[in-house]
Structures are given as structure tokens and as C-alpha cells.
Amino acid sequence: MQTKKSVEFFKSIPAKHCSECGETVVEQAESYLMECDRCLSKIEE
């Protein structure tokens, strides 16, 4: 029963959007990035 509540909670979280272009970010577990891969590849190091 508790597992079902946890799943429902995580499904209700809205998708994260890139802070640069606004596109939906495809997240990996424990990812704290705020930009999408395309915008990250444009950043000069």
C-alpha cells in the first residue's frame, strides 16, 4: 500500500524545464542539472 502512494507522489511531480531554452529536461536519477543537454553542450568551459 505504501509503495502505491510513493509511486503516485512521483508521478504527480511536474517535469523539469531547461532554465535556458524552456525545453523539458529528460532527467536521470539524482540529477541536479537545470539545463538540457543541448544547452549544456553550448556552454564554453
Written account of the structure:
This protein is mainly α. The chain has one domain. The protein is elongated. Helices cover 38% and strands 0% of the residues. It contains two helices and no strands. It holds the Pfam family YhfH. InterPro entries: YhfH-like (IPR025432). This is YhfH family protein.
At a glance:
This protein is mainly α and 45 residues long.
Short descriptors:
single chain; 45 residues; mainly alpha
Q: Helical segment tally?
A: 2
Structural class by helix and strand composition: mainly alpha
Structural shape: elongated
Low-confidence stretches: none
* Mean pLDDT metric: 83
Number of strands: 0
Describe the main β-sheet briefly.
Answer: none
- What assembly state would you assign to the polypeptide chains in this entry? single chain
InterPro entries: YhfH-like (IPR025432)
Protein name: YhfH family protein
Pfam families: YhfH (PF14149)
Organism: Peribacillus asahii
